[in-house]
Amino acid sequence: MKKGFVYILVMFLFVFAASSIVMAAGEKLTVWVGGHVVEQEETWKEIVSDFTKQTGIEVEYQLIGFEVYYDKLVAAYSAEQGPDVCFADLGGWVPTFAAQGWLEPIDDKLATSDATEQIWPNLWPTVTYQGKRYGLPWYTDCRLLLYNTKMFTDAGLDPQKPPVTWDDLLATAQKLTDESQKIYGYGVTGAKSETATLAYMIYLYGAGGEFLTEDYSKAAFNTPEGLEALKFYTDLFIKHKVSPPGTLSYTEDDYRTMMAQNKVAMAIGGPWSFPLIEMANPEIKGNYAVAIHPYKTEPASVLGGWASVISKTSTQKDAAWKFVDFITSYDVWMKWVEKHGGPMPTRQDVCEDAPTFQADPKWQVIFETFPYAKVRPPIPQYPQISDQIQTMIQNVLSGQDTAENAIQKAEEEVNKLLAK
After folding, report:
1. For strand 29-33 and strand 85-89, is the pairing parallel, antiparallel, or unpaired?
2. What does the pLDDT look like over 263-316, one tens digit per residue?
3. 183 neighbors 262 (Cβ within 8 angstroms)
4. How confident is the model at residue 48 (pLDDT cuts 50, 70, 90)?
5. Which whole number is the average pLDDT over 256-268?
6. Contact 228, 296 (CB under 8 A)
7. What is the CA radius of gyration of the chain?
8. What integer pLDDT is reported at residue 2 of this predicted model?
9. Average pLDDT rounded to a whole number, residues 75-86
């Protein structure tokens, strides 16, 4: 009787354990991808399929547009329903999320990955919080001038001689603008978007200004350089009218599409722009180029990109890391670059080895610009600070405030955020 009972008990435990394993095996890894790579849906499908074939791990992934991604992610994390893996913008998202306790530190995982020593060194501060690393940078970029060479030629301009200074930029944009044909020389990002903040930063740094103090304790942009940058940037729309009438609702993405249709000649862009502008209009291939963005006193750019992070509440952290490590591998990146020609990998070996980068002069400009690219403040308050800069720009563009008043208000609000 006792032996029979023990046998039944053992069989019950075996069946229960087996069913638990099946349940665990059936649980899919959830992945959210944001940023400018969401439009390469077929490639993501292939990468996820390859990962599942190699590991046996099923993945349920979502590709989410940039403009709604941050709010969706914060809402999910706040409800403790975040994905196992997601992309986080290198512009302050990682320290912000880490400070909230939403992310898993991955220093132990990084110690075993061959990708770690290949990541561009200046990217690690963007994923570090209180001495710990919470993300693996996946792709990076630097912002610069994207322009339509055909429109230059049609306007009698030499596409081999893009504008270098602010004065050059204005003169060139005016020659390219034909309001009667709804053609405009330069796209000013006026929508309330992170890209508006990044645009202001490029003009600010190009005028010799600084965004925050070195210790990130106070605003540093309310200076003659910062005010001049704000005025010049917004006057391109308000005073000189070289940006379209809908500027207040447009972002870089909108201008890239307009450029593909020969409606806007110049805008801020980057390496992510190359495959996307050609998707918008295949005929634009060979008819666009890039240059260091025009500046007043010194060349300037802002570093951007995305990192893979793992949720603190994930029940599949090992599987999550396998996915993160897989998509950052040399082979996956070489395949991506061969297929799309960009964006810029965070792996130095891929940047050095990929034939696409060596053959395309646009990439030589990217690599020339990258040393000038500055990191957005890697502090938890950055997203809120960026929101204040966006408000400042919108208020000036809409005529609600003068540049002088708007920059003063922004400084006060930013200092309040930093004082908390």
Report:
1. parallel
2. 999 999 998 899 899 999 999 999 999 999 999 999 999 998 999 999 999 999
3. yes
4. very high
5. 98
6. yes
7. 24
8. 41
9. 96
264 φ/ψ sector (left φ>0, alpha ψ -120 to 50, else beta): beta
Secondary element (H or E) of residue 5: helix 2-26
Tell me which residue of 140, 225, 232, 148 sits closest to 188, measured CA to CA: 232
pLDDT in the model for residue 4: 46
Place of tokens 């919080």: 129
Longest dimension (CA), the chain: 99
- DSSP letter assigned to residue 292: P
246 contact partners, CB below 8 Å, separation of at least 6: none
Shortest CA distance to 140 belongs to which of 155, 153, 121? 121
In sequence order, what DSSP letters do the residues of 163-228 get, joined into one string?
A: --BHHHHHHHHHHH-BGGGTBEEE----SSSHHHHHHHHHHHHHTT--SB-TTSSSB---SHHHHH
Helix (H, G, I), strand (E, B) or coil at 128: strand
Tokens found for residue 275: 């495959």
Q: Which two tokens stand for residue 293?
A: 């963005």
Q: How many CA atoms lie within 13 A of 283 on its CB side?
A: 5
| Mean pLDDT of all residues in 141-148 | 96
d(CA 174, CA 180): 13
Mean pLDDT of the region 328-353? 93
197 touches 382 (CB < 8 A): no
Confidence at residue 6, expressed as pLDDT on a 0 to 100 scale: 39
